[in-house]
Design goal:
alpha/beta, Nitrilase/N-carbamoyl-D-aminoacid amidohydrolase, 6-stranded mixed β-sheet, 16 strands, globular
Length: about 270
């Protein structure tokens, strides 16, 4: 199968223009699965919750989702993309999975980063996987990478590919995702953005680019440049992610000993000192 990622430079608040540019850039691409950045249509650096509410959309009825649904249908492709979601009074940093037959599913970001805690409600979907027929995909968003449990849960649920829409400003994610792929034996597709945002007197945010596709052995298959924009594709075999062996006598999951992992879910231990 062929997978791809879109590294973009959105203009904050210019939803129509950002979506139109994405559709133009993606139109000529032949792929089975495409991953777009976090909040690709709105931009990232919000300055008020009212601003988020104004730009957020319902899934699947919002115009961004409808545009991606139309593209998926016409191009016979599955697309994972990040957007600000509005559901009644709640606002989520979310991602939608769409395909030729319509909406496949959604994910709401579990681990909110910095000012996202002011503007978005904590995600309530939990980690899920979606069977696309040719592969099973899981979704996590940006700062979820910091928590190894995110990728591990998706891998245990059967993900061959972890789709990772992102707006990265911290410097370590690209290298860390090599480990996430290696320790879980999965493909990861991190779709980041480029550019700088400085709004409302806030500290400027400079995005790190270097979107990438990493294989189950932790090797980078393709990586975009720090300032490049466009679509980057690679051919992969999802079957490689279904072999969880490490050596002839070691297995990523069968060698686990969950009976000793209790502290991972112990709320008392998780409290800050």
């Amino acid at each position: 199968m062929r997978v791809g990622l879109y590294q973009s430079h959105p203009i904050f608040g210019e939803v129509d223009a950002n979506v139109e540019r994405a559709m133009e850039d993606l139109w000529e691409i032949k792929a089975d699965l495409l991953v777009l950045p976090e909040l690709f249509a709105t931009g990232y650096q919000f300055i008020s919750k009212e601003e988020v509410r104004k730009l957020a959309e319902e899934i699947p009825n919002g115009k961004t989702c409808q545009a991606m649904l139309e593209l998926a249908k016409r191009k016979n492709v599955h697309i994972v993309f990040g957007l600000a979601e509005r559901e009644k009074e709640n606002l989520y940093n979310a991602a939608a999975v769409v395909g030729p037959a319509g909406l496949v599913g959604r994910y709401r970001k579990t681990h909110l980063f910095f000012d996202e805690k002011t503007f978005f409600d904590p995600g309530d979907t939990g980690f899920q996987v979606f069977d696309l027929g040719f592969a099973t995909v899981g979704v996590m968003i940006c700062f979820d990478w910091w928590f190894p449990e995110s990728a591990r849960v998706l891998a245990l649920l059967g993900a061959d590919i972890i789709c990772h829409p992102a707006n990265l400003v911290l410097p370590d994610c690209q290298e860390a995702m090599k480990t996430r792929s290696l320790e879980n034996g999965v493909f990861t597709i991190t779709a980041n953005r480029v550019g700088t945002e400085a709004r409302g007197g806030k500290e400027p945010l400079t995005y790190t680019g270097e979107s990438q596709i990493v294989g189950p052995r932790g090797r980078v298959i393709i990586r975009a440049g720090k300032g490049e924009t466009g679509v980057f594709t690679a051919d992969i075999d999802p079957e490689e992610a279904r072999d969880k062996s490490i050596t002839a006598r070691n297995h990523r999951f069968q060698d686990r000993r969950p009976e000793y992992y209790g502290p991972l879910t112990n709320p008392e231990i998780n409290k800050s000192p």
